[in-house]
Write a structure and sequence with these properties.
The protein is α/β, with parallel strands linked by helices. Helix 3 runs parallel beside helix 4 and helix 10 packs antiparallel against helix 11. The chain has helices spanning 17-26, 55-59, 72-81, 102-114, 127-133, 144-154, 169-197, 202-210, 217-225, 228-251, 257-268, 270-288; strands at residues 7-11, 30-34, 50-51, 64-67, 93-96, 118-121, 124-125, 136-141, 158-165. It folds into 2 domains: 7-164, NAD(P)-binding Rossmann-like Domain (Rossmann fold); 172-288, N-(1-d-carboxylethyl)-l-norvaline Dehydrogenase, domain 2 (Orthogonal Bundle), CATH 1.10.1040.
């Protein structure tokens, strides 16, 4: 049984991780952070926090250490090359909030256990908008007692927190969630492209369908959250997530090829679709003046 957590470390203060760390600090946890770039620390400037000069220093100061990094390679780098595992206290909970490979999650868990720590993979859904509004969904996997110890931390930035099973199940759940979202994005791109061809008012169409039976998270995201500039970044992550999904499904004997093809098409079409929506909104605003 783990004791109540009060000291929380966070590494990965990006567009999503920054608001997550800020939420943890807002709720009274002692927040400890480290960042490769000093500019990233602006994400937590409004809440009390302690900045560490190294990963090793941070690792020895907390009871739970959350990682919100790009991929599994970055996780391994922080664990070993940056000295995280060499400096944790026994029983320290290490959490991976990024999206990765379910098989690799099991390897990471075993490696952390050898160093005396415990592991949860807890990828999140909702992106930076969800992180800012504290409405992320967190898909957790690991042992129930460790999950219960960490739950209060996850609830600072989430409105839904669910234990999905043993290590790896959280990553699988996130990959299936992403596959559904990204393939749905392809549907949205196709429909909005056709609507533009026939002369429909794109902003009005998005607004009314968003509250109708055709509404979806993909439509709302493209209609309101994903700017052309953000799309330039997001579409590469979408491709990565679809390949992670396909690899994980193949490893379990499934055939992901049809979904993979549609998901990659959705990722590749995101920038053009975001540009269409932005231009349509600019036109609508000009006409309204």
């Amino acid at each position: 049984m783990h004791k109540q957590i009060s000291k929380v470390g966070f590494i990965g203060l990006g567009d999503q991780g920054g608001p997550m760390a800020e939420a943890i600090g807002e709720r009274g946890f002692q927040l400890h952070v480290w960042a490769r770039r000093p500019a990233s620390l602006a994400a937590v400037e409004k809440v009390p926090h302690h900045v560490h000069e190294s990963v090793a220093s941070l690792a020895g100061s907390v009871e739970l250490l959350a990682l919100c990094l790009r991929d599994d390679t970055d996780i391994w780098d922080v664990l070993d090359n940056q000295g995280l595992l060499a400096n944790i206290a026994p029983g320290t909970i290490i959490v991976n909030h990024g999206t990765g490979d379910p098989v690799e999650a099991a390897r990471i868990a075993a490696h952390i256990a050898e160093a005396g720590g415990v592991y949860l993979d807890a990828p999140v859904s909702g992106g930076s908008p969800g992180a800012r509004t504290r409405t992320l969904t967190t898909f957790v996997s690991g042992t129930p007692d460790v999950f219960e110890a960490a739950r209060a931390v996850f609830e600072t930035f989430s409105d839904t927190v669910k234990l999905m099973g043993a290590v790896g199940a959280g990553q699988f759940t996130k990959l299936f969630n992403n596959a559904l979202t990204i393939t749905n994005m392809k549907n949205v791109e196709d429909v909005l492209g056709l609507a533009h061809q026939v002369g429909l008012d794109i902003p009005a169409l998005i607004d009314v369908i968003s509250t109708s039976s055709g509404g979806s998270a993909a439509l709302r995201a493209l209609g309101h959250d994903i700017s052309p500039e953000l799309a330039e970044h997001v579409h590469t992550l979408m491709q990565k997530d679809m390949h992670h999904f396909a690899d994980a499904v193949r490893a379990r004997g499934g055939n992901p090829e049809q979904l993979l093809e549609r998901g990659i098409a959705g990722a590749l079409g995101l920038v053009a679709a975001a540009q269409l929506v932005a231009a349509s909104r600019d036109d609508a605003e000009s006409r309204a003046r």
